[in-house]
Amino acid sequence: MKNFLIIILMIGIILGTGYGVYYEIEMKKEEWGQREETNTSTVQTKELAINDELVTSLMEVVHYLNDGLLWDYQTKGKPYFGYWYQKDITSQNEISNQIKLYLALRSLYKDDDWHKNDIVQVPKTDVEYALEKLFGDKNIVHESLNGTGCNYTNFMYDEQTGIYQQESLFCGAILPPHYIAQIEKATKYDDRIEIIEHVAYIDFSESENGENINVYKTNQEKIASLEYTDNEKELLKQYASGLDTYQYTFQLKNGNYYLSAIEKRTNDKVLFLVLQCFHYINLENLLFQNFLVLINLIMNGAQLYSNDYFE
Q1: Rounded distance, CA 36 to CA 124, Å?
Q2: Residues linked to residue 180 through DSSP beta bridges, in sequence order
Q3: Secondary structure of residue 251 in the 3-state scheme
Q4: Is there a cis peptide before residue 79, judged by omega within 30 degrees of 0?
Q5: d(Cα 154, Cα 167) in Å, to the nearest integer?
Q6: Tens digit of pLDDT for each residue in 187-240?
Q7: Which residue from 40, 39, 63 is spatially nearest to 195, judged by alpha carbons?
Q8: Gap between the Cα atoms of 237 and 249, Å rounded
Q9: Is 4 a residue whose pLDDT tops 60?
């Protein structure tokens, strides 16, 4: 009799939890619908052309960290190469000091200007100007970079003069691994611009028929290996469905757009909805509390069953 009551209570707990989750989801669906109606009536959006001048200028600096020149056999480009793809989400306040300095210094020079002087010197005031233009403030710890001389990452900082200095070295003409990206969509909101793009990691290998080009996701999971071609943009289109997708958010502040976040997107709509449910209705707490009650009942039931068995 006792065991029967325990089973009934356990079933009641499970049904109660299920109903609670269902009720919360239904309430949130109604709330989300109302919120969506409110947002669509107040927020202005505009689709921008992917070759829009503003879009390309914002992404130009972001893509400096994709450059194959950052990769070398000793360091594999660490900590700069592919920095955005090391985490699923990176907010502005999480961007390292080294990365901010590198992007600031790199943004001050075009490739054509880089080799005009044997020694490149940059005052820290210029670096702070570039930082403010990129991130909206110039808060930084001035320090030397930790890379190599041919890829803008070997600037040495002199505290006494406040000058960054590096020799303008020429890199070899080999084909290094690199990241390629294709902007898919750019949307302008009242307070920000969101840019979405596909990203692939590319490297090269030798085969019996010559050189191959290999296509990977950003985590270096290989998705294709084929005969070498220099039309990498076409490869992006061909394998877009299997590549990773990232969203870059640029926040509007005082009339300018500043990089505020980089986020890896998922194409799994079911997973997205589940994560939204957990976020909005705090589902894990509801399940956890009921789980503890259920475990307690099971333990008590086991004890009662044991008592009945041995009596």
Answers
A1: 46
A2: 200
A3: strand
A4: yes
A5: 8
A6: 999 999 999 999 999 999 888 778 899 999 998 899 999 888 888 888 888 998
A7: 63
A8: 23
A9: no
In this structure, the number of other CB atoms found within 10 A of the CB of residue 96 comes to 12
The burial of 52, by beta-carbon neighbours within 10 Å (0-12 exposed, 13-18 middle, 19 or more buried), is given as middle
Q: How far, in Å, CA of 287 to CA of 17, rounded?
A: 7
Contact 83, 99 (CB under 8 A): yes
- Whether the Cβ atoms of residue 80 and residue 70 lie closer than 8 Å to each other: yes
CA distance 272 to 279: 11
- Cβ 217 vs Cβ 244: under 8 Å: yes
- Kindly tell me the burial class for residue 42, based on how many C-beta atoms sit within 10 Å of its own C-beta (0-12, 13-18, 19 or more): exposed
Interior/surface letters 53-67, b for 16+ CB within 10 angstroms, e for the rest:
eebeebbebbebbbb
Determine contact, residues 48/188, Cβ cutoff 8 Å: yes
3-state secondary structure of 28: helix
Tens digit of each residue's pLDDT (9 = 90 or more) over 124-163:
999 999 999 999 998 899 999 987 766 778 899 999 999 9
The total of other beta-carbon atoms located within 10 Å of residue 279's CB is 10
What pLDDT does 95 receive?
95
Q: Nearest-CA neighbor of 145 among 99, 90, 93, 77?
A: 99
Average of per-residue pLDDT across 105-131: 80
Instruction: Record the tokens describing residue 38, joined without a space.
Output: 């409110």
The pLDDT score that the predictor gives to residue 234 is: 87
Predicted pLDDT at 281: 45
- E strand or H helix that includes residue 99: helix 97-107
Which three-class secondary structure state does DSSP give residue 230? coil
91 touches 260 (CB < 8 A):
yes
Instruction: Say whether the peptide bond before residue 123 is cis (omega within 30 degrees of 0).
Output: no
